[in-house]
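Dear support,

I submitted the protein below through the web form. The confirmation email said the job was done, but the results page showed an empty box. After a refresh the structure appeared. I'm attaching both so you can tell me whether what I see now is the final result or a partial one.
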Amino acid sequence: MRDTQFFLLDGADAAAHEIVASFFSEIREQYLKVPELAMPHIANRIEEQNTIIRAGFGSLQSGLRELRDTATDTLDLKIDEAKDHLERHEYEIARETIKKLRQAKWDQMSARQRFRVLSNLAMIDLQQGKLNEAASLFIEAKDLQPEDQAAVANEALAYLLMRDNSRAFELADRAKARFPTSARALMVWLNTAPATASLKELKDSIPPYLAADPEVLVALAHRALMAKDAPKAEEIARRAIAAKGDWSYSRALLGESIFRSQLPDNAEDYAAALPARDKPRLAEAADACTKAIELAKKEKHSGIEAAALLIRAEARRLLGDASADEDIIAAYNIQPDDPTILNGYACMKIRLGQNLDAIEKLRSGAKHHARADLRMLLAFALSATGEPKNRTEAIRIFSSLAADPKAPSSEFRTQAAVAAIGNLVEVQRWDEARAFLSQLPPGAISTTALAALQGRVDLSAGERQKASEFATQANASIAAATSHEDIRLTARFLADLGRHRDALPLWQRLASPTCLGHDSYRLVESTLRLGEHRLLLAFCEQLRLNGIYDPQLIGLEAGIREHYDIEGTIFLLQEYLGRAPDDRNIRLQLSVIGTSSDAPNSSPPTRHQCQGRKIRRPKTGWPSYL
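What the results page shows now:
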């Protein structure tokens, strides 16, 4: 019997030895009393004991299950506690709670609990602007729950955070098909869909049951801004606010949408901060950003706060508000490493003439961020110093950006090419300029822009005939879909050649009757040179119908109109004085016309007389190379 499994090892617990010893003592006693019944009796006792043991094991297992369930419930409650802190924007408390839990209880957690811990840590990092850290945690968490809807959507979000849009779109496309009710998967899909997808196509891809989801709406509004459809972006942002009014991001998007709807088509007008065409709308944009800033502070979301400050600064600048730069500095102090904030801060420094400070900041930023816009701005700042060494570096940067297939757009590459040629011709490096243009990859810039720039080089080098041939080629290539940037480049080149008749229809195409800017001034100048009074008067009237009363243009229009319509001219000047009664020049002009109104009408001014009339254009904030 001692050789059987019923005997315990000598190292076993004393109480266990006592139980086994008692059991075998009873068997031995029974054996001595009735030897022939010993074996049946032993079998019966073993069976009885097995029943008791099985019951004991069952009770033990039940107890362990209860203990495990209690421990599981405790862990889930602790995770829920951390999540509550996260939702109340108490990020550091949430992080500390999760970290302690992870360190002390990780080995006791189920896969689901580990997934929750990592996902909440990722959300904390995301809210605090630690995008790469958040992305890594989302990817790690997905491996713990590969079939979970949130895990799959968050994996796609991770690649969006890492700016790997192609991978993010691939994963989001699968997630959207697999989990059609996932708003997050659809949000990532909308943000990363190819640039060729139209806004209508993106909108049509949204199922009705997700059409009012705030995450989906802000993603669609963002795509509308990318498509330069600011009115549509504003409409969608307002719907997002209706769905979730206390979210800073939707408010910031609304502010940006309104602001962008007021931007002029010509970058020169924006750089020069021409008077706003609709000050109430710009003020509305600034107010939306102020609300976003307030909400972002409550959410402790420094990224949105800084972005809203930057947008508000630009709106205030166009409003002529002196506090605009204070907003830019505040944004930079909050997020000095954010490339978009750095871009805005450097622009301010360049505008203030502090180029060396801008160069220092942009060099550092360009090293850490693969952003073409930072490199472009660095090149502008270097060029603005006027130093030969800096200009050479600027030309090198502009040239590389013009040839970069990964540049944001063809328009961006064209801007870089224009700047490169502008710098090269300024220092009379014409052969180098021609070589640069000849070595651009096919399709890097449009055929229109290429011809205009080739002609620009020849004109600068004194080869006027060749330059005119290129101008004819550029003009002939303009079609309905040609960008305004390319049309403007060609029109300016034609005007510089003295070909105002060819330039006129291009300025007509560019000049807006709802916004007074550089294109407007160039159209007016072109009509004056050509003696096209009918076109000039019609354009001035359109501007006035849209509420634009510029004193220079009013005086110019009156000077031309008086030769055709004295009564109309007097009415024009009186109407303007009703708006600006202190304008002495216009009052004097009205007096002169009134004095001479009884005299016979003089002849309309000749083209030569019109060419002497000049209007003062506003100076731009950037050097005009071409």
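Response: this is the final, complete result; the empty box was a page-load delay. The chain has 32 helices and no strands.
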